[in-house]
Write a structure and sequence with these properties.
heterodimer, A: three-stranded antiparallel beta sheet, two-stranded antiparallel ribbon, 21 helices, 69% helix, 2% strand, B: mainly alpha, 22 helices, 75% helix
Chain lengths: 535, 505
């Protein structure tokens, strides 16, 4: 093994397979150049077009690569000396990330709601409430940097998803996180809250990264390699090694933090509430997807041999996450916090099939939904519902500002039935009511857990879902059947950007609820993690 | 490929609901009614066509192959009668609630009301016709959402809370059932083939273990919440009290039947041994429901609650004879579901007319109506007597079959249940006496100025005619049900007890 350090092996790069990721990274870099060289006036539109085109091109390349024979063959997948793995799950998660990322970035561009300005502050550097801030707003300045920042975050997420090496995992995580810290602090209104959220997210996120890095060091100490394949070989014969266990625990904490699982969830409500709502939408879907994907690959492919050790612990985390998320969400009076805690409970529901680990290698019946496929489906369902819900939150306003206080939402179902019914569809999907994608997601998630032998976890999940239902019923009650007392909010006329997102999310939620079969089969066909045997 | 008769049958109301949502508010009620009538005549046409040509109209398409679920529709005898009663009740409800949402009675317009009624009907029709466990679950749950808005949108002051209670109970029951569905699919996968088809699941020879017991309990609890059995009934009186009479007729007449329907389809059809294991407890619970419902009905002042409690008593009878598991009692139970929908539906509608006139649902606010509105009193009497199973009305036939069937297996239980029928006479006749007879009170003279209009009569007549005709000539329906009963008896592996005394030989 030591010899390989001195031999130079030229990394094999399959550029076509890597292309979706490279295109996204390239788009982000181009965005920086646009920021520097394009004049202020057309800059916004150039940035938007560049971002949208870049992501669409990445999606087209993913479709192009989908049938690639290389995906099926483990030997030709060794990319950059095995540090990055382009296999079925990577392609699927890239499609999810870049697709939902695209929708969220379209939301960034909504300018009808603030009399021609975006949801972002005109001058992030000015002191809140100062003259500089007012001047910047009056001058109509726009922070167009959010577009390259979001794309950088997406490229980090893409790297994280494909990481087959502990260091690449860490690098991907940081590329994902650093732009987010900035984006969270850019809200146009209630800037102090936004900046506080940003600082909080940064401090806790940095802490989590440090813990993760510590875990990486431990695992390196145990196996002598950063590579997942070496890790997988290393764990097979060493149950109970304290170095190994500590490493797994610390890396797990770092990733669970990003997923937003209890007890590492405390940042979620504050950050979701403080961030500009389009950024919240972006984070709630993309960060979770990327972190779950990285977690899956590390724990299934790299640490699959330690399954019996980490399963019970994660089962506890899953139950705790569902319960804490659902119960605390019930008495929140702010819609963004309700959705934040609901996101926490969804993290718990995602962990349920993850713990079940129903895969072909663990004795699952062929042809049935595996854990990975059901998690992917759940993320699709959740992504549509969460993005759509946050898109609607941006519309509910009073005197030009977003109103997130639920008391002011009373009677919206009467005042604007169309938007209220769309919101209802997203809430029903999150609650897991049939004929929406959310139901199918929950169903196959619980089936996968039971297939993996964790029937009691499925039962706990079902009980948790009963509690979680109340979160959404309460919001529906307020919207449709409560008479307003006190100030009320109204629905602002949305521009085309928000409408595009809302309509696509409704179509996704309903279509995958009524005809889920093809999508599930597709995900099923790309749900096996490949671990290169000889790198 | 064959014309998808059954899909179209269930989709007609749903498509009408969409059209109703798109047309002008003034037109919406007419469009809705026309759609409901098309659905009625189309159903009759399909049933006649099937009888005449004996074509197989089952449909099956893969829906979610990864979990073994298929979009599979079929009609057996039980399905036929429930579909028929659904398409008959829906136009009656629409006609009876013609003015709902027009004035200040509701938060939302009549357009929304019509669309929601049609959605409830569409989802119920799917549930009655599906032969796939997951699909059954999907539509079973989906009915809750439009019904929730029906309760919350129109009716009494506290309707919002009542609707929330209805939805939370419904969803809780649904999720408990979901656990059962998941468990059944895993058992099916372990048994070799992953399929959620009812026939396939019925043929699985599952050994009784604590797992199958647990799954059975999940299903039973979910269905007991739906066809409310004491102690899981508490949502029904509240929901019935706050909603509109038409909504209540739909809820008690159709939606709650999904519970007893599911007990036969799933509890008896898939888990017969577990059902026998649990029978003693279930029979006791059924008896408690019979008497609790009857006494609570006698004691209630609110008419809507009163009828809801009578239904709890009737559901007790249905559950009792389902689990008595003789061919007579199961047939009786299926027939009971039809008759109860007709009789209670009619009773809700006619009482609703009176409540709308009087502006109060308190039974003591009425009196002497027979003198000012004889027709209304007459309809109330007929529907009420049908509810307490007077001979000549169809509920009599089913109640007789139910008790006789139960008697041959469980004479003691049947004997205890018989006084329940006497109590039924008490609550119905006492209600009638307080409302309709006696001197004409001041309030009655002031509020009840008109007898039933032609529209109001039109809604009632089909229901009344149906239960009278079936009371004298139940054979067609019983013939339709018989093969279903036989199927469930065979699949459960039980036979009727031998008659001990044979006379005339």
């Amino acid at each position: 093994m030591m010899l390989t350090l001195f031999e130079f092996i030229p990394p094999s790069l399959d550029y076509l397979l890597l292309a979706p990721f490279l295109v996204v990274l390239g788009t982000a870099c181009l965005g920086i150049l646009v920021e520097a060289f394009v004049p202020r006036k057309p800059r916004f539109i150039v940035q938007l077009v560049l971002a949208v085109l870049g992501l669409i091109m990445a999606l087209v390349l993913i479709v192009w690569n989908w049938g690639s024979p290389n995906l099926a063959d483990p030997w030709s997948d060794v990319i950059i000396s095995g540090t990055v793995m382009i296999d079925g799950p990577t392609m699927a998660f890239w499609a999810l990330l870049f697709g939902f990322g695209l929708l969220a970035i379209i939301l960034f561009a909504e300018r009808n709601l603030h009399a021609g300005a975006t949801s972002f502050t005109s001058s992030a550097a000015s002191v809140p409430g100062s003259n500089a801030e007012t001047e910047a707003a009056d001058a109509g300045l726009v922070h167009t940097e959010v577009f390259p920042l979001a794309i950088f975050a997406l490229s980090g997420a893409g790297l994280l998803v494909a990481a087959n090496d502990l260091l690449v995992l860490f690098i991907g995580l940081e590329i994902l996180s650093l732009p987010l810290y900035v984006m969270v602090g850019l809200a146009r209104h209630r800037r102090v809250v936004s900046q506080e959220a940003s600082l909080k997210y940064f401090l806790l996120g940095a802490m989590a990264s440090a813990i993760l890095l510590f875990g990486v060091a431990f695992l390196f100490g145990h196996t002598g390699s950063f590579d997942y394949a070496a890790l997988s070989r290393g764990v097979t014969f060493s149950f109970g090694d304290s170095l190994l266990l500590a490493g797994i625990a610390l890396i797990g904490v770092g990733l669970l933090f990003k997923i937003g699982a209890v007890p590492f969830h405390s940042w979620v409500p504050d950050v979701y509430q403080g961030a500009p709502t389009p950024v919240t939408a972006f984070m709630s879907v993309c960060t979770k997807t990327a972190a779950v994907a990285a977690f899956l690959r590390l724990f299934y492919a790299g640490l699959g041999g330690m399954r019996l050790t980490w399963q019970p612990v994660l089962a506890g985390v899953a139950i705790l996450t569902i319960l804490v998320g659902s119960i605390i969400a019930i008495n929140q009076m702010d819609i963004k916090r309700v959705l934040a805690y609901s996101a926490v409970s969804h993290a718990g529901f995602i962990l349920v099939p993850l713990v079940g680990a129903a895969t072909l290698t663990s004795g699952m019946m062929p042809g049935t939904a595996s854990s990975v496929a059901s998690i992917m489906f759940y993320l699709v369902a959740y992504g549509f519902a969460a993005l759509g819900a946050f898109a609607i939150v941006t519309l509910v306003r009073s005197q030009g500002r977003e109103v997130t206080d639920l008391a002011a939402w009373a009677g919206i179902g009467k005042r604007d039935p169309v938007i209220a019914v769309i919101f209802l569809i997203f809430l029903l999907s999150m609650a897991g009511i049939p004929l929406t994608a959310g139901f199918v997601g929950k169903y196959i998630a619980f089936v996968a857990a039971w297939q993996g032998g964790y029937w009691w976890l499925a039962m706990a999940g079902v009980l948790g879902a009963i509690i979680a239902v109340y979160i959404y019923v309460r919001v529906v009650q307020i919207m449709f059947f409560k008479d307003p007392d006190g100030p009320t909010a109204t629905i602002t006329q949305a521009g085309p950007a928000t409408w595009i997102v809302m309509i696509l999310c409704v179509i996704g939620t309903v279509a995958f609820g009524i005809v889920p079969g093809p999508l599930l089969d597709l995900l099923q066909s790309v749900s096996t993690f490949i671990l290169p045997a000889g790198s | 490929m064959m014309f998808p008769f059954l899909s179209v049958l269930a989709l007609i109301p749903a498509i009408t609901a969409i059209v109703v949502a798109l047309v002008k508010p003034t037109l919406s009620r007419y469009v809705g009614l026309v759609g409901a009538l098309i659905s009625l005549f189309y159903t009759i046409g399909v049933l006649v066509f099937v009888k005449v040509s004996s074509v197989l109209i089952a449909e099956s398409l893969p829906w979610l192959p990864a979990v073994g679920s298929a979009y599979s529709l079929n009609l057996d005898g039980m399905g036929v009668v429930m579909v028929a009663v659904t398409v008959l009740l829906v136009p009656a409800v629409l006609v009876a609630e013609w003015h709902t949402g027009m004035g200040e009675t509701g938060r939302y317009s009549s357009k929304t009301f019509v669309a929601l009624v049609l959605l409830v009907s569409s989802f119920s029709l799917f549930t009655f016709m599906t032969f796939d466990l997951l699909l059954f679950y999907v539509f079973f749950e989906a009915t809750l959402i439009p019904m929730y808005f029906l309760i919350g949108g129109w009716g009494g002051v506290k309707r919002g809370q009542a609707a929330a209670k209805f939805l939370l109970f419904g969803l809780a029951g649904g999720l408990i059932m979901l656990f059962g569905v998941i468990g059944t699919s895993v058992l099916s996968a372990r048994a070799g083939t992953l399929s959620l088809d009812f026939i396939h699941l019925g043929q699985l020879n599952l050994n009784q273990t604590w797992v199958t017991h647990m799954i059975f309990i999940c299903f039973f609890v979910a269905f007991a919440l739906k066809a409310p059995m004491v102690p899981a009934h508490i949502w029904l009186p509240d929901a019935a009290e706050e909603t509109t009479p038409g909504g209540a007729a739909l809820m008690v007449g159709i939606l709650d039947k999904l519970g007893t329907f599911g007990m036969i389809r799933i509890c008896i059809g898939i888990f017969p041994e577990e059902a026998q294991w649990a029978t003693p407890v279930i029979l006791i619970l059924a008896l408690i429901s019979i008497f609790y419902g009857a006494f609570a009905a006698i004691g209630s002042k609110n008419l809507m609650r009163l009828i809801a409690y009578t239904s709890i008593s009737h559901f007790g009878f249905m559950v009792m004879c389902i689990f008595a598991m003789t061919s007579q009692s199961i047939s009786g139970s299926i027939f009971y579901m039809v008759n109860h929908a007709l009789a209670t539906g009619a009773l809700y509608l006619v009482i609703g007319y009176m409540i709308a006139r009087r502006g109060s649902a308190n039974v003591n606010d009425f009196g002497g109506i027979i003198k000012v509105a004889p027709l209304a009193a007459g309809f109330t009497l007929v529907a009420g007597l049908a509810c307490c199973s007077l001979p000549g009305t169809s509920p009599f036939v089913s109640e007789f079959m139910a008790i006789a069937g139960t008697w041959s297996h469980y004479p003691v239980i049947a004997a205890i249940a018989i006084p329940g029928t006497v109590l039924a006479a008490v609550y119905i006749l006492w209600m009638y006496q307080r409302m309709m007879t006696g001197p004409v009170t001041e309030a009655t003279r002031k509020h009840i100025t008109t007898d039933l209009s032609w529209r109001e009569r039109l809604a009632l007549i089909p229901l009344v005619v149906a239960f009278l005709v079936l009371g004298f000539y139940p054979q067609p329906v019983l013939n339709e049900i018989a093969p279903t009963t036989e199927y469930y008896m065979t699949s459960a592996g039980v036979t009727d007890p031998e008659a001990k005394i044979e006379e005339g030989r």
